[in-house]
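cron nightly-structures :: item 1 of 1
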Amino acid sequence: MMKKDLEKILQEKRLRLDVEEPEADLIWEGIRSGLHKKKAMPEWFWKVAAIFIFAVSATYFIVNETSQKKVVIVSLSDISKDLGNQEQLLKQTVSLKWEEVENQLPSGNSEINFLLDELKELDCVYASYQQDLNQTLNNEPVIRAMLDNYEKKIKILNRLLMEIEKQKHYEMSSENSGRIPYDTIENIQFKSYEKTTTL
């Protein structure tokens, strides 16, 4: 039934649909209106573009800021001349004491190894003080702690020298008296203990 209705409608409107010549004005008007229309970008496009610009800007800012930061190490002489002189004197004393210890340093003594570990620990502590001083200039407690660190190093180096001298004196007295040095006795006892425990 629909097919017959459709045919009937087409028959009635046939005269309007059959046009030999198209209307030029109507066609050109359609073309003109299409030229002036701007195609709207989809909403997702603008979101993606905004995220891309943000990511590029953030990356540039982070790379630029981290690469241009210069690490400036502040010394006590930057704060005051007196502190600089005091630090320099303590540094020289530590350096001279260390050279003296280094030239005589024996190996295998547990007391000496303990003191050397203490010196390493003081170096780590000093590095953290240096970072604190870089962040907060003229921080009185940090300055006192840095100077105290040098004094502790000097005390440990003096104790190292005393231990080295004590060991040398003991070895010399052992050689003169014909006794076996304590370290050797300790090693012999340990080895005999090892043999009995492994059997």
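cron nightly-structures :: done
The radius of gyration is 45 Å.
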